[in-house]
Design goal:
Blueprint lengths: L8 E6 L8 E7 L2 E6 L12 H4 L15 E2 L2 E2 L2 H19 L4 E5 L5 H15 L4 E3 L6 H11 L8 H6 L2 E5 L3 H4 L1 H13 L4 E5 L12 E3 L6 H14 L5 H7 E2 L1 H9 L4 H8 L3 H13 L3 E5 L1 H4 L4 H14 L9 E4 L6 H7 L15 H11 L12 H9 L5 E5 L3 H4 L3 H10 L2 E6 L12 E4 L8 E4 L4 E5 L12 H11 L11 H13 L18 H6 L3 E2 L26 E2 L18 E6 L25 E4 L1 H6 L7 E5 L4 E8 L7 E5 L32 E8 L3 E7 L10 E6 L4 E7 L6 H8 L5 E7 L4 E8 L2 E9 L7 H6 L8 H9 L13 E3 L4 E2 H11 L4 H8 L9 H8 L6
Parallel strand pairs: 6-7, 6-14, 8-9, 8-12, 9-10, 11-20, 12-13, 14-15, 15-16, 21-25, 22-24
Antiparallel strand pairs: 1-2, 2-3, 4-5, 4-16, 17-18, 18-19, 21-26, 22-25, 23-24, 23-26, 27-29, 27-32, 28-29, 30-31, 31-32, 33-34
Helix pairs in contact: 2-20, 3-15, 3-20, 3-21, 4-14, 8-10, 8-11, 8-14, 17-19
Bound molecules: iron/sulfur cluster.
Amino acid sequence: MQKSLASPHTTRSTCPYCGVGCGVEVSVAADGITLCGDQHHPANFGRLCSKGAALADTLDHEGRLLHPLVNGQRASWDEALDRVADGFKKIIAEHGPDAVAFYVSGQLLTEDYYVANKLMKGFIGSANIDTNSRLCMSTAVAAHKRAFGADAVPVCYEDIEAADLVVIVGSNYAWAHPVLYQRLAAAKKARPSMQVVVVDPRRTATCDIADLHLAIAPGADAYLFNGLLHFLRREDALDLAYVEAHVEGFAAAFEAARAVSSIPKVAQVCGVAETQLSEFFQMFARTERTVTIFSQGINQSSSGVDKANAIINVHLATGRIGRPGMGPFSVTGQPNAMGGREVGGLANQLAAHLDFSDAASIDLVARFWDAPHMAQAPGLKAVDMFQAIAAGKIKAVWIMGTNPVVSMPDADRVRAALLDCELVVVSDCVQHTDTTACADILLPAAGWGEKDGTVTNSERRISRQRSFMPTAGEAKPDWWIITQVAQRMGFAAAFSYAKPAQIFSEHALLSGFENAGKRAFDISALTKLSDVKYDALQPVQWPLNNVAPNGTQRLFADGKFYTPNGKARMVAVAPQLPAVTVDTDFPLVLNTGRIRDQWHTMTRTGKVPRLNTHEFEPFVQIHAADAQFHQLQDGGLARLTSRHGSMLARVQVSEDQRHGSVFVPMHWNDAFAKLARVDALVAPITDPISGQPESKHTPVRVEPYKPVWQGFVLSRTRLELADASYCASSWGVGYWRHEIAGETLPDNWRSWVKNAWHGSGDWQEYSDAAMGRYRAACLNEGKLDAVFFIASDQRLPEREWVGNLFGKAVLDTADMGALLAARPRKGVASDTGRTVCACFGIGEKTIRQAIQKHGLNSVEAVGQVLKAGTGCGSCVPEIRRIVSPLQVS
Ligand code: SF4
């Protein structure tokens, strides 16, 4: 693994994965790079989750895009940049500025985002720049603007710890925002009177600390919070004095909530027991310090903005906002989704939290930039943008740091649109993704550890992401690539930045430009930072100006909002269920989401063996009753089909799943599995206000997929197993693991194997055609290079034991005998079970055995005996479930 050879040093930076924005401390030494959580960073105080803790293992150059490529051929930077600039200029000249688009990413740093937005909206003259953050939090942006007059998150992380009641809605917080979850879990442990309610159709790891789990019917959240508003009024639990002084729209919102308001009716439509609903409502009514956390379960909906406003409504009506331990809290998915919001990364926003709703805002930005071609109207939001590409209206698109062929809904149509598009430019760190495969021009971008700038986390905290290693190959920072193209398009004067600090300074200056307290986003105190001060910038929360020179922990403490009259707005919400419902052809609801140890499309976390052991295949989780009805077997394969596409996945039967719903992770893609892009199934239906897709509710059917043969291959090199109809590949320690299945039996397995494996070596094999079994192993100088196990059914040996043989310097005769017999040697453990603790590689079977052997009865006791759960802590909820099955009412 290639690591930096720079002189030893320690650098403080920020984790590039989720919106928690944890600080990391990176130590570079001659023998490699190590990292740990930054004890001083206020987001995490030293904690890291499994993904963050494995960051040092992602820094090699394996799979990196190292040079510019034009039509698949290596090109110089000058050549590639000229081709991008000329291509965009030509299409703009022929078809106008709206014929081009940028699709950017919450992975970009704020400085990258700023110049991309400035180029498109101020100089090209179109607002066709949208971001993958559209898919995760544009709903919260719209709801904040409706309620507060600004896209401003009211609360801070400390409020979660200070609350007496934390309601978590539509979020598997334990896996999606692990360190924030750990902070909450620690606070609850220290103060057991704190109560936690989880509102989610699935029973997730987050329920580990829940006092109450409301397994709500998919999409019914607005009914729940409207019902709560009505209940609070009836119980005299509203703060009408606060409403009178600081809120408008109460009467209309309350009237709308009356439509479905009695406990029996709300319980019926939400699909929960009346007693549970009543318990939740009473908890909320009596608990002043309440934080309501919401995330994708709310946002990714065709009526998500209304749902978010229904949540905000109850906080406004109770005056539970702007004070310690209370408020509605949208947690963002991506590391810099918030930074993107600040600079106008969404097609309907302008920079500095301005938008297109009034001419004065457009004029303000145009004057500040001295922009020659200022966009005058919102551009196309992500789903519309890709549909415009498909329709040929957008003829050139530049995709930066994201993988829409995997993550966009109706993903097959997105791929087809890109393949037909006249000019597709992709800048990315990674060479082979589903999206780079569609590119005409590939530009190598600097990766984490190489690039330098700022990010903003979910609590409005700006932190530095600092470089600590040289860039790979010819990779360049995104801001440099964008400004070079801008200069070649004729905008040299406005894009002559020499370093990110200059861009940040301009961004800070714009935030305060003609602001005078009118806009929430104001970091004017950070204007004109010297290079030294920019480099040393400590994590700080905006607003940050002459009124609040040290930043602002919590907003709206004075009851003043960013609306024309200073009052917050309650919104009359008429709840709607999802746009498309199940029917006899598509009887189950598909819900998508994250798993514990993977990030987005796995381009980084997929490289780390220990992050691939928790879940190594695409899977579909289904309730036992549904599995039985649809004739699906636990561990078997299934085909999922919607009106838009289909995929294959391994079946996991689970009581955690709500009857009628299935869950599939969002991560798998063509780079790791065949036919496993779940977004190919998701309908391109969006919220009419935010444009965010309804990724949590797609009607599907799930049928058994019955291959003629199945098996697995472990191999030191990655194999292209094109003849397998199902193939999921993942990194193990020292080998690649391929889970495979096929629909047609080859004439000869030996030929099939030789066709798949191109290396030399000594082969030994076992074949039983009558039983449909074939096994082969290849040795090189006594060392195991590859093994193939094929069977007509699922009776295959444990991969753990076989994988361990790759660690042996020489396999002896007994090892080979065991391999071909598919049984471990006497005294060798066959299997430790599915990995639960990624930090220490502890499997479920090992934990169960230790519990039995030592009579362990707590997570702490398991940790003492096995160390499991004592590293990053991400696996603690699973260990607790093994020790004592979940006890949530
Ligand atoms: Fe990174 Fe995990 Fe922290 Fe998110 S919670 S920022 S993924 S370490």
